[in-house]
Amino acid sequence: MKSFNVRTLVLIGMLSSISYVLMLLNFPLPPFPQFLMVDFSDVPALIGALILGPVAGILIELLKNVLDYFLTGSATGVPVGHVANFVAGILFILPTYYIYQKVKSSKGMTFGLVVGTISMAVLMSVLNYYIILPAYTFFLNTPAMSGEETRQMIVTAILPFNLVKGILISVIFMLLFARMGTWMNKQKVQSRAV
């Protein structure tokens, strides 16, 4: 995405809006704690990144989280969960985008989605251990978990949850990608021509 022309801004706005609505349609997965919710809001961000470039994908992730924070709020009063969602989205879409740019095929996309899922799961586990879970305990004014309890939470809940979430998003995206590939390529060409 080299410039922010009107067409590009409209496309980013539309994809951000769709992403926000998908974020509202979140749901828990039974084996995981209730605060870990799956949503498919990263799909429009990935579509935006593939059409307009990685900056557009990051902007879509940012805008959906800003919208959600201001319209639905946060249990902590500060956007800890929104920052976590933003970072997780970036950790998923950027590796997928860059790998697909190197290997432009459905195999390249599949490999990119696998790397994006692993990247999100592993790095979010590290960030949860050192930053996100301590921030939640601080802002919610709850007793801090011990190091062992935190490790247990990461290994039994957060890491497997992010793997499952990444797989679900990847499956949905591949189903859309198979149908929308021609449209996405057309949009990409049009955005470069303007």
TrEMBL record:
Transmembrane regions listed in the UniProt entry: 6-28, 40-60, 80-100, 112-133, 153-178
Domain of life: Bacteria
Compartments it resides in: Cell membrane
One Pfam family this sequence matches: ECF_trnsprt
Entry keyword annotation includes Transmembrane helix: yes
Cited InterPro entries: ECF_trnsprt_substrate-spec (IPR024529), RibU (IPR025720)
Bilayer topology annotation: Multi-pass membrane protein
Family: Belongs to the prokaryotic riboflavin transporter (P-RFT) (TC 2.A.87) family.
PANTHER family in the cross-refs: RIBOFLAVIN TRANSPORTER RIBU (PTHR38438)
Primary role: Probably a riboflavin-binding protein that interacts with the energy-coupling factor (ECF) ABC-transporter complex.
UniProt protein name: Riboflavin transporter
Organism: Robertmurraya beringensis
